[in-house]
Amino acid sequence: MTDKKKVLAISGSTRTNSSNERLIKKIAALAIADIELTLFESISELPHFNPDLDNTDKLPSAVIAFRQQIAAADGILICTPEYVFTLPGSLKNALEWCVSTTLFSQKPAGLITASASGEKGHEALQLVMKTIEAKFNGATLLLIKGIKSKIDMDGNITDDKTLQEVQTFTASFVKLLN
Fold first, then answer.
1. Residue 39 is part of a domain; what is its CATH number?
2. How far is CA 84 from CA 12, 31, 115, 155, in A?
3. How many domains does the chain have?
4. Average pLDDT over residues 141-163
5. Parallel, antiparallel, or unpaired: how do β-strands 109-115 and 75-80 relate?
6. Fewest CB within a 10 Å sphere: which of 8, 12, 18, 64?
7. Strand pairing partners for 143?
8. Domain NADPH-dependent FMN reductase-like spans what residues (predicted)?
9. 115 is in which domain, residue-wise?
10. Sheet containing 109-115: which strands, arranged edge to edge?
11. Are 81 and 113 in contact (CB under 8 A)?
């Protein structure tokens, strides 16, 4: 038996019990034998990115803690909605705090955009993650349109096609971690 891989999951939504958070928890349950998932729950507590503070002794403690969690993880799972055809500001802000680092360089990543539409947000997420050199492939990317009608409040995926896609994505992400 292999050791479980440590995965840091980041929800791009700041809403309590969002569809994205429920989807993250569903993936954690599907991969419970292979991964130990920690949900980053402080995205709304990160200060606005300020390059004058980046990599100085003035680096905010919330940013230090966030970076430490990324460094300690074997892989990153991002599940985000799309806001106004792009990434939510809170997620973009969190990722901007990492641009000047190599924290994501070749770190395995699973990238999900789960929203009403999501196409432009999904493109933006891939572009940012490619720029910071995260390691992902076509099998570790998933776009789920109309998520609110496909997952219930308990985190059960109610659409068979979506459930199959999430299961395939999860298996591919676990494979990328190994």
1. 3.40.50.360
2. 13, 32, 11, 25
3. 1
4. 97
5. parallel
6. 64
7. 113
8. 6-131
9. 5-177
10. 35-40, 5-11, 75-80, 109-115, 141-145
11. yes
pLDDT, residue 55, reads 85
Distance between CA 113 and CA 105 in Å, rounded?
21
Q: Could you tell me which of 71, 126, 136 has the C-alpha nearest to residue 98?
A: 71
> Residue type for 97, please?
W
Residue 177, both tokens:
């971690």
Q: Could you tell me the two tokens for 76?
A: 């990153």
pLDDT tens digits, one per residue of 28-84: 999 999 999 999 999 999 999 999 999 899 999 999 999 999 999 999 999 999 999
Structure tokens at 41: 């729950």
- Supply angle C-alpha 78, 103, 5, rounded to 5: 60
HEC letters along 56-120: CCCCCHHHHHHHHHHHHCCEEEEEECCECCECCHHHHHHHHCCCCCCCCCCCEEEEEEEECCCHH
Q: How far from chain centre, in Å, is Cα 56? A: 26
